[in-house]
Specification:
Elements (H helix, E strand, L loop, with lengths): L2 H15 L10 H6 L3 E4 L3 E2 L6 H7 L2 H6 L3 E2 L2 H10 L5 H5 L3 H8 L3 E15 L2 E14 L4 E11 L9 H17 L4 H12 L17
Parallel strand pairs: 1-3, 1-4, 2-4
Antiparallel strand pairs: 4-5, 5-6
């Protein structure tokens, strides 16, 4: 076997192991729309917890504002939508974005879906999971930005040096977490990661204050 053949085999092996480069999202539609104000509408809830959408929305305003956008107050938004006959996330999702944006004079509408909001108990561990889909749509109906976040948390029990005591403590911690899981830290983190951090984060808005 010649050196050329060896070289070709080595090149193929290296190319097979290489990680393909990340393709950047096309943000031309976002740049064209250049939204200044965002209307956050009630979320679609795929979980079994009826309160999940309200908790999620309560943690969205701050990162959006810090990213540089005017965000219509969540409570005011819900009141106005209810006066127009819109109560549920699924119902609102079926309404044309142009109509929703026009009610407030918003540049864009943020739709969020609660895909996961649960605490699963396995043996002596409870895993809390949240998963959200984010979709920003311009007032003309053009999709401007999307993101998806899935975070999990399993509370850890400090070791006491006694195996039996550790098992009992872990079981108690898991049972307590299952009985009253705290979703808000994960929810805030998911919103921050989707909107503020990472290569797929929401682009800076016009009111973003430069870092000191």
């Amino acid at each position: 076997m010649t050196r050329a053949v060896f070289g070709l085999i080595a090149a193929l092996a290296l190319s097979g192991c290489a990680t393909p480069p990340r393709v950047a999202k096309d943000m031309s539609a976002f740049d064209t729309a250049s939204p200044h104000s965002i209307l956050v509408v009630p979320a679609v809830n795929r979980s079994l917890d009826v309160d999940a959408p309200n908790y999620l929305l309560s943690a969205l305003t701050v990162p959006l504002a810090e990213k540089g956008y005017y965000v219509f107050p969540i409570h005011t938004t819900q009141v106005v939508l209810q006066q127009e006959g819109f109560y549920e996330g699924e119902q609102i999702r079926n309404e044309p974005t142009a109509h929703l944006a026009g009610l407030f004079g918003a540049d864009a509408v943020l739709y969020v879906t609660v895909a996961r909001w649960d605490a699963q108990y396995v043996l002596i561990t409870t895993t809390v999971t949240v998963e959200f889909d984010y979709r920003l749509v311009g007032k003309d109906g053009t999709e401007l930005w999307t993101n998806r976040q899935r975070l999990q948390y399993s509370p850890q029990q400090n070791s006491t040096g006694n195996a039996l005591a550790n098992l009992v403590a872990a079981a108690i911690t898991a049972a307590m977490t299952r009985a009253a899981p705290n979703y808000m830290p994960l929810t805030r983190q998911a919103n921050v990661q989707a909107i503020m951090l990472g290569p797929d984060a929401l682009p800076d808005g016009p009111y973003r204050k430069p870092a000191k």
